[in-house]
Amino acid sequence: MTSYKLTYFDFDGGRGEVVRIALHAAGIEFDDDRLTFQEFKEMRQSTRFNSVPVLEIDGASISQSNAMSRYIGKLAGLYPEDDLQALYCDEVLGTIEDVNHHVVRTFGLEGDELKEAREKLVSGWLTVYLRGLDELLTRGGGEYFADNRMTVADLKVFVQTRWLRSGALDHVPTDLIDQLAPGLVDHQERIAADPIVSTYYASRS
Ligand SMILES: N[C@@H](CCC(=O)N[C@@H](CS)C(=O)NCC(=O)O)C(=O)O
């Protein structure tokens, strides 16, 4: 039997979360290796690109969360078979990574410097990307981003919008998405209520 191990931080979000949900959806048992930040510091150099998530399949280690999401997404039936719909799905996965790139640049800042950087992020890149994602959702028909059903693209956006609306990021208003792109709020609620997602979180609690 194939063995799977996913190494990522010990919280329900971030780049590893879509892979965890997709593994659950596929009915694949896996070693859910959850690290504290201190544990990550200690093992960081042992990973190929000094980063997590790392997915090990029969001991072979894989990097790049979007590649993992696509692969496990295929096993779970959460990735389109149609090439054009797969393109739509990939576009969304890449878009969220671009958003992360801008958000991560504000990590480690403090005080006024953090406030200034976050306010610039909110009025700049976050506004651009949230509006763009709203357009992509409309293109998909308004409920899902691709294939008229839930795919890993929806999971990726769900994890991101839940995070942005949670108040975890100082100086990012929790109602930013409600103001700019209410369709993404409805989308977050739709995905949270999907049986795949709700049973995953029920299994965690
Ligand atoms: N492109 C990679 C990026 C991986 C990445 O940067 N992960 C972050 C955590 S979410 C990390 O490990 N950062 C390490 C560091 O900045 O020291 C992916 O999508 O998996």
What does this structure look like?
The protein is of the alpha+beta class. It is built from 9 helices and 4 strands, in the order E-H-E-H-E-E-H-H-H-H-H-H-H. The protein has a 4-stranded mixed beta sheet. Strand 3 and strand 4 (60-62) form a beta hairpin. The longest helix is centred in the middle third of the chain and has 29 residues, at 111-139. The mean pLDDT is 98. Glutathione binds next to helix 3.
CA gyration radius, whole angstroms: 17 Å
The run of helices and strands is: EHEHEEHHHHHHH
Question: In percent, how much strand structure appears in the residues?
Answer: 5-15%
Bound molecules: glutathione
Work out the helicity level: 55-70%
Total DSSP E strands: 4
Shape verdict = globular
Strand-pairing-aware structural class: alpha+beta
Rounded to the nearest angstrom, the distance between the terminal CA atoms is 28 Å
Helix tally equals 9
- Could you report the average pLDDT, rounded to the nearest whole number? 98
- Stretches where pLDDT falls below 50 for ≥5 residues? none
Biggest β-sheet: count, sense, barrel? 4 strands, mixed
Oligomer description: single chain
How do the strands of the widest beta sheet line up side by side? 2-1-3-4
